[in-house]
Design brief:
alpha/beta; OB fold (Dihydrolipoamide Acetyltransferase, E2P); 4-stranded antiparallel β-sheet; Rossmann fold
């Protein structure tokens, strides 16, 4: 199978999805915004928007300027990424599949008319109207489940529980301004230590843990914006794709292969 599949979004969950599609032999292209705000940057291919190249496990993403460059990147066994939040590149790429992995909790313009197979992740979409399939992203019994009719569970606004910690895992910007680092991803931090600051206002660790996510330094943030993620499990592997991302990726691949069998191209 030599299908082109376009994934809208390149954050940590999207990267888990991309790996499943990439390993299945599909030609994957990523569409991202001009200033990605992924927290778990070490496992997010969207970081190549800033650095022109990003490596996560066995995948390398390369920033390209136009869809015509994608063929060369695929030929090198790599994954092209275009800055194209409005998905104008679809007209040139003509993908068999489109995956909305933006995880905005609402639909930012994806429709089932974009490709023969359109899959959306998380709340904000209904199948088969907005997409041909929707994949559950909420932790729990249904994580990774594919809905060919209906929608994923609504957003609760509360992060999933990891190591008995939930909402307190996520650190947010205290005000508008520019984020400055005091710690780095992978650091073990003690309760009360300063993790980052915005316009001189410091944000401290609420408990001892491993800093596995932190917005890129220099980004402009707004009050309450997610800016860092602390894992209470001190042995957490911040270099590799999470169990949640792999599970969702399996659901997306399942949905794609199931729907792909049903269309005649």
């Amino acid at each position: 199978m030599n299908d082109v599949v376009v994934v809208r979004g390149g954050g940590d969950l999207a990267t888990g999805v991309i790996q499943k599609l990439y390993r299945a032999g599909l030609r994957v292209a990523i569409l991202e915004g001009p200033k990605p705000t992924a927290i778990r940057r070490t496992v997010s291919l969207c970081d190549c928007v800033w650095d022109e190249i990003a490596q996560v496990e066995d995948m390398t993403a390369v920033l390209v300027q136009n869809p015509a460059e994608c063929e060369d990147v695929w030929g090198q066994g790599q994954i092209p990424l275009l800055v194209d939040p409005d998905a104008h590149s679809l007209k040139v790429l003509r993908p068999v599949g489109v995956v909305d992995a933006i995880l905005a909790k609402h639909n930012l313009g994806t429709s089932s008319s974009m490709a023969p197979v359109v899959i959306a992740m998380g709340p904000g979409f209904t199948a088969p109207g907005d997409a041909h399939a929707v994949v559950e992203t909420m932790r729990g019994h249904n994580l990774g489940r594919v809905y060919f009719e209906g929608a994923a569970l609504p957003n609760t606004g509360i992060p999933g529980v990891i190591g008995s910690r939930s909402a307190e895992r996520v650190l947010r910007a205290p005000c508008a301004g520019t984020i400055r680092h005091h710690k780095q991803i992978g650091d073990l931090v003690e309760e009360g230590e300063t993790i980052f600051s915005v316009e001189g206002k410091e944000v401290v660790a609420p408990f001892t843990g491993l800093l596995r996510g932190l917005l890129r330094e220099g980004l402009e943030v707004f009050p309450g914006m997610k800016a860092a993620d602390i894992d209470p499990r001190l042995d957490s592997d911040w270099h590799s794709i999470s169990d949640k991302a792999r599970c969702i990726g399996g659901g997306v691949l399942e949905a794609y292969l199931y729907l792909r069998r049903r269309i005649a191209l």
